[in-house]
Each structure stands twice: as structure tokens, then as C-alpha cells.
Write a structure and sequence with these properties.
The chain has 213 residues and is of the alpha+beta class. The protein folds into two domains: 58 residues, no CATH class; 154 residues, no CATH class. The protein contains four helices and nine strands; from the N terminus they run H-E-E-H-E-E-E-H-E-E-E-H-E. Strands 6-7-8-9 form a four-stranded mixed sheet. The radius of gyration is 19 Å and the shape is globular.
């Protein structure tokens, strides 16, 4: 196996581990993602169908930070629609992409909601909206990735957070919001909420490291 093939195989293995929460039957075979639930094994298919039936009610969408996709690459997985925001400015000799964020939405959601991209103007931040087809219900979801402190891809954290909050202020009267992702933030034993204002349970402190985020 050549170096390029080994790199691609390792990348696909990492991707498969990430996507197992969506489809537990994903495996890497010769640098390709394979859904083993389609094998002609009736007993295995019964187990897989049971898992999918359960997951269809609990995991309607999945958020992915650091997709490592390049340019216009997308994830294609049966039963899901992909919304992605790939990182720009990847070196032409890079073996793989870096950064990037995206959503995997189950196909049946498109029968219930109008789904589209709300905003992707800032690298590392992707907003997606869901409009209910039969009511005024609206749900806005954001997935984001803030590069680590002192990273070669480090961005202005104040600008990043201001950009992240802008749609919240702009569409605050249009429905619910859900923000998730990887902020690479370390707050140690400091409060991660405003006492007396936020109604959030205290967390169990596992580490005392702090960074500039």
C-alpha cells in the first residue's frame, strides 16, 4: 500500500468512527466507507433494522466538526442529506482537508420541514434552518469549530463569537436556537454560566486547565 493509500485509509477510519453514531454498520474496506447492513445476512439485517428503527426516533440529525473535506466535497450516506461548510485556503499539496463543519439530516425530515442554509459567511460556522411545512414552527441549528489556541489556523475569538451570535439577535423572534460544536475552550473551575441569571446545573470539574478562550 502506498503512502497516499495509507493516509486515505487512516482518514476514512477516523471518519467511520465519527459516523458510527449515525450508522453503526459503517466499516472501512479498501479506503472506502461501506454500509455492511446491505449484506445478504438476514439475521444481521434484522438487528440493523432494529437499530435504525430506534435511532430514527432519537437521532434525526448529526453534527460534525472537523469534517476534513476539501473544496466542494460532500458526504453521501444513504438516508441522509448533507449540509456542509468546508474550509477554504487548503494548501494545494495537502494530503487531506482540515477543519470544516456540517450537518447530516435524515431524509424524512425534508417531508416535515423546509431545510436550508441560513448562513455560512464565516469559516467554521454553519447555520441551518428548519421550517415546519404545516405550522409557523422554526428551528435554527448551528455547528461551529473554533481552532485551538495558538493554532496556525487561530482566528480572532472575539470576532468569531460576535459572528456566531449575530444570527441569534437577528432571528431571535423567529424560533428556537441550538448551537453546538467544538470551541476548544478550557475554563478550569471557573463558572461557565452567569450565576443568578442562567438556570444551569453546576458541572463536575474534571480539569483545571484554562486558555485564552
Amino acid at each position: 500500500m502506498t503512502l497516499q493509500q495509507r493516509i486515505e485509509s487512516e482518514n476514512m477510519t477516523v471518519l467511520a468512527k465519527t459516523l458510527k453514531s449515525v450508522n453503526p454498520d459503517l466499516r472501512v474496506r479498501r479506503s472506502r466507507l461501506v454500509d455492511e447492513s446491505v449484506r445478504p445476512d438476514s439475521q444481521r439485517n434484522v438487528r440493523s433494522n432494529r437499530r435504525r428503527e430506534h435511532n430514527s426516533h432519537t437521532d434525526s440529525y448529526d453534527r460534525i466538526a472537523e469534517t476534513h473535506l476539501r473544496k466542494d466535497e460532500v458526504l453521501i450516506i444513504n438516508g441522509f442529506k448533507w449540509f456542509g461548510h468546508n474550509r477554504n485556503g487548503i494548501h494545494k499539496n495537502a494530503k487531506c482537508g482540515s477543519g470544516g463543519v456540517g450537518f447530516l439530516n435524515k431524509d424524512y425530515l425534508t417531508e416535515i420541514f423546509n431545510i436550508g442554509i441560513l448562513d455560512l459567511s464565516f469559516e467554521g460556522i454553519l447555520w441551518v434552518y428548519l421550517y415546519h411545512r404545516l405550522s409557523n414552527f422554526r428551528f435554527n441549528i448551528c455547528v461551529c469549530y473554533l481552532p485551538p489556541d495558538h493554532s496556525t489556523r487561530q482566528v480572532d475569538k472575539e470576532l468569531f463569537l460576535d459572528t456566531l451570535l449575530s444570527p441569534v439577535y437577528e432571528f431571535q423572534n423567529d424560533g428556537l436556537f441550538y448551537i453546538c460544536g467544538d470551541f476548544n475552550s478550557r475554563c478550569g473551575d471557573e463558572y461557565d454560566y452567569i450565576p443568578g441569571v442562567d438556570c444551569i446545573n453546576m458541572r463536575s470539574v474534571l480539569g483545571f486547565t484554562r486558555n485564552s478562550y
